[in-house]
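Our platform keeps sequence and structure together, in a single record for each protein. Such a record has a labelled line for the sequence and another for the backbone structure tokens. This encoding replaces a full spatial description with a residue-level series of whole-number codes. Below, we set out a record of this kind in full and without editing:
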Amino acid sequence: MAELQSSLFCCPVCHSAVLESPVALICSDCGKAYPLVDGIPCFGDSDTFYEGRWAQPDSSAGSLRNRLVKKERFFVNGLRGRRGRILDLGCGGGWRLFATVGHSVGIDISLASLQSARRLYDQVAQARLTAFPFADESFDFVVSSDVLGHIPLTEKDATLSEIYRVLKPGGLTWHYVEADGDDPLMRFAKGYPELYTRHIVEPEGHIGLEPAGSAAARFERAGFRIAGQVPCYRGLTYVGRFVQYFDNGFKERSLFIRLLVLSCKLATIAGPIELAANLGMSFLIELGDRILPERWAGGLLICCEKP
């Protein structure tokens, strides 16, 4: 066995160097073995819920769509002109935008997603977000999009602690965090707990939603300096997402919801019509994020620095 000279990986338990064998990476200190599956180091167990669910690579890197979708534009603008080693948490199939920054690494618990992501990233690994297989101060940048809302509330602080640990001093971290909005639609949905769980929480695994302000406060408690934050998607979303959430038992509880679902379904019958509708929604989302209450935010865009 030989120590991995060019690898960033280390034991996620004791953070010691790992030794490479044909079938595993083995901690040089505690001796724990981590199997290689199709060449991918596996430092954590898989999860059947996520396996292959978001495995499609995103080859965009500043496209028109990236600039129109608010949460994508956040990363395009934040990373513009920056160069360094970058870690993508819950990477799914990967995003080429992140790979353009420099040496790119993705971690996820889905092997199918990682098999796709390695087409874009320099290194990938299966790992839990509470125990990163990297040494202290390994990265210039850490990013995640639509990930932190999937982490149970009891594990969020551990994840932020890991982000802090692997960032270099002065390193930056950008996140789109799904939030628990207190807007009229979500208040209506929560009035039917069984429907809310079945159609809004469970389909995408959003088991760790909290208000945008609470999510931001976690970063501060973890030691980060908040460089910028935007509570966003204040009660508004794209037409397809509205249909996904409410074209079910909810529409039987409210004539208003039924009419909204019908309108949104009509807007999704053809690609050009849906595109036009979502362009209009993008404008309304931008307007709403300026005038509607922050507590309505269904998401948080946040950039933090490690002092």
Q: What stands out?
A: The chain is about 35% helix and 20% strand. The chain has three domains: 1-37, 40-235+292-307, 237-290.
